[in-house]
Amino acid sequence: MIRVKRVYEPHEPEDGPRYLVDRLWPRGVKKENLLLDGWLKDLAPSDNLRRWFGHDPAKWEEFCRRYEAELEGNSQNWHFLLDMSRKQDITLLFSAHDIEHNNAVALRSFFEKKREDVS
After folding, report:
1. pTM, to two decimals
2. For a Cys-Cys bond, which of 35, 36, 65, 94 suits 11, CB 3.0-4.6 Å?
């Protein structure tokens, strides 16, 4: 299972390995206080895409399409995480306020499609 959580939510034992998938470090969070297995900046949307999207739900579908295209061109940075998600639960962490329209949700959807392609 691939979980998605805000960085401000407490760590839970069932989270499994936890990876921050934002390009920018979350405001108000000290690195030493965030139980984290890695900060995967290279999996985050590009600065241009992030700025264009601006967490506007009206742009969500196009954002996902563009983000998936970026990910396809950057597969060396995410294959290990996809493989890990096939073997154990993982958690993708994000800092956006919108829990439905953010890059971690889009990344989970991308991984779920990739897992289906192999099945």
Report:
1. 0.92
2. 35
